[in-house]
Queue: 2 jobs
Job 1
Amino acid sequence: MEIVREQFLQGKPVILIDPEREVEADFVYPAELITPEIVEFVTKYGKGLFCVVGPESELMERGFFKLPSNYGANYFVPVDFPSTKLATGIPASERAVTCNKLADRNTILKDYKYPGHVILIGASSFSKRKGHSESSVELVRMAGFSPYSVIVEILDEKGDSHNLEYAYDIGKRFGLTVLTIPEVWWEYVRRVQLVTVKARAFFPTKFGTFEIVSFENELDFKEHFALVKKYWGVPLVRIHSECVTGDCLSSLRCDCGSQLERALEMIYASGGILLYLRQEGRGIGLAWKVAAYELQDKGIDTYDANVQLGFKPDERDYAIAAQMLKALGATEIKLLTNNPDKVTQLEAYGVVVRERVPLFGKLNKHNLRYIKTKVEKFAHKIDVSNLNVEG
Ligand SMILES: Nc1nc2c(ncn2[C@@H]2O[C@H](COP(=O)(O)OP(=O)(O)OP(=O)(O)O)[C@@H](O)[C@H]2O)c(=O)[nH]1
Ligand SMILES: [Mg+2]
Ligand SMILES: [Mg+2]
Ligand SMILES: [Zn+2]
């Protein structure tokens, strides 16, 4: 973030790439710092729409209002700050002043002329939406500036906005930092703590006595919880995703229930933490998981079933797990899992995974194919030939 801050102070925008949603690259620069030269640079080499984005709630408090829209974008009334009597709002010098003023929270709608020539967009919260608007506002804020960003899409020689290679070339040519929206999100989750402990209580179970911990959660607003057994040093951690069929109904279609029991035994023995995440069905929910089961009954595997239903093979995001661990004071862990994606994601979110400890569930004739698919298509680290199949 220091590098980004320095670059902004030197008058260089960042190129921010959205590899997933829109497949677009935008110039991003703090509205607070923008000069006529930078307005000229981003409009000349970007060629997309020149906009200022700010937090939606702040814009409303300052009197800016939303335009009626049947479009995905969250447009507010475009404005000009009248810097001189002859102001028309369009010259780079005037647009720069309008941007600077928008970044100044003391100005309100009445100080501007409208409808003007600087397009204004409201960003929602980054945990709810991961578009250019939200990520650019948080990027500028994390770099230490007022959370108002200037963004302009980068179009190639033919006017195409989806040419990411062209955007990387522009970055090289002008020595600009290129970031992706996921990279900004990882940094945001590492820095901004949105989860805190709400309550802790005595929790006896058939595996032994734990403490149950609930959380105040401004990240995804779901009721995740933890079981903690007192530990010294690096805790053994299990991050278990909800599987109501396996955890509560003893389903044999998967190995979740037996993994949960084994994990509680191991954590009770060595001390550690179990996080129970409400991401049923690898994040697609119970209704869709049953739809995926229906496809699996027709012979499709668990990976392809998700894809056929229009989801990613695995929709889970472990940002919430990283923040819960931080709230519990555990930033270095030993992780109980066979799933390499859990390790990769946690590390991106700033958790140090000292060791991965395998966790085998029980195999049976109903879940064997499911487990094999995990090994073959999700790169789970399980040696299937060594496991005993029961029932
Ligand atoms: N979409 C979908 N989800 C499933 C299916 N079977 C089980 N699940 C879900 O898969 C998740 C398994 O969670 P975990 O055991 O924490 O994670 P894992 O990917 O198995 O990785 P491990 O840490 O090695 O156990 C649960 O949310 C289950 O509800 C299926 O066929 N389709
Ligand atoms: Mg865009
Ligand atoms: Mg599992
Ligand atoms: Zn399951």
Note: The pocket of magnesium ion (ligand 3) is lined by residues 255-256, 259 (CB under 6 Å).
Job 2
Amino acid sequence: MALKSFIEVHPDSHFPIQNLPYGVFKPEPASPARPGVAIGDYVLDLSVVASAGLFDGPVLKNNSDSFLQPDLNKFLALGRPAWKEARSTLQKLLSATEPALRDNAALRQKALVPLSKVKMLVPISIGDYTDFFSSMHHAKNCGTIFRGPENPIPANWFHLPIAYHGRASSIVISGTDIIRPRGQGHPAGNSPPYFGPSLKLDFELEMAAVVGPGNELGKPVDVNEAADHIFGLVLMNDWSARDIQAWEYVPLGPFLGKSFGTTVSPWIVTLDALEPFACDAPKQNPPPLPYLAEKISKNYDISLEVQIKPAGQENSSVVTRSNFNHLYWTLTQQLAHHTINGCNLRPGDLLGTGTISGPEPESYGCLLELTWNGQKPLSLNGTTRKFLEDGDEVIFSGYSKGNGYNVGFGTCSGKIIPPPGGGRCCFW
Ligand SMILES: O=C(O)/C=C/C(=O)CC(=O)CC(=O)O
Ligand SMILES: [Ca+2]
Ligand SMILES: [Mg+2]
């Protein structure tokens, strides 16, 4: 019999007892932040569960303050034995057959808060954020658009998971408005570079791995052990100003074209919850160097969708559908590569996968590809888009379909607003 909770969970919900994703929330605006897991339309307050002494397994009994924190970093640092223990404790506590919470009205009242009432926060303190470039389709399309159709994929791409160091300070939680950045764009002909609000603002459909235990400086992580350093995944939007990016990125890579904002979903879905949806990663040719050659090379079957809701429109329109399983380089290869030079990762670090584009034009992961740099506008319910306009809300969602249940991520959204002082340039 499938595992079932005493809490009613709609079959379409992203948050059945099989999922139990972790987040950090405030039940009231003035209350301190605390960790929770989502279950149906509720969040289970883990500070209440911990204070009631219900984390009584061998690892968490001695680390009971892990859930009395404003972020998940302490819990992440404990590693997989603690994560597995917490998952089995919580699945038992929430199951239909377990009376401890089910039959204790006072505890239920304190521990279960309606999701509609809470404020979600970025659930981890993110020291460092890296963004990879692991979809071959995305690499090929961007290469063609930015550098031309001859050899669009750089020679190094098939030998290593390319990445750039992102900006952790501007990572925001789903629902935060994104201010259209100002910056320099390509000069046209002999004129000076453009300066003003970006004219080519884009989203990038990504997921990101949340690092658990880190590694010591100078000690790389073996690719076959890398999964033990990954707690789970979030949805991530790497907002990108294509005009700023295209002008600034040679030769050092993305800078201000991406550092103005990155949105993450509030719920971290654990690798343990995603395990039933593991699938083979693509065969890699040429074979990777030994430090990247893994015994088991895994992806996950996670359906991803992006919708845009223009200002004033009642409904949003789907602009792309993709899947996590389109990634060429796996999460574990990304993590092992990141540390091969001795670089240390720390609990709470975020590793973006890169834009997840599939092979078909309907599965491309950003407007740069979907509109081919603005040459083929998308139609959206009576209007059109080359790039994002002020007032556009971009909504990502993602889930894995199980037998009678979903393991989902909820949504990751953000609305574009004009820069202070309006859309016109005011410095010249
Ligand atoms: O190919 C390029 O020049 C640029 C590519 C990107 O902007 C993508 C990037 O941020 C990495 C990714 O999302 O895959
Ligand atoms: Ca990106
Ligand atoms: Mg970004």
Note: The chain has ten helices and 26 strands.
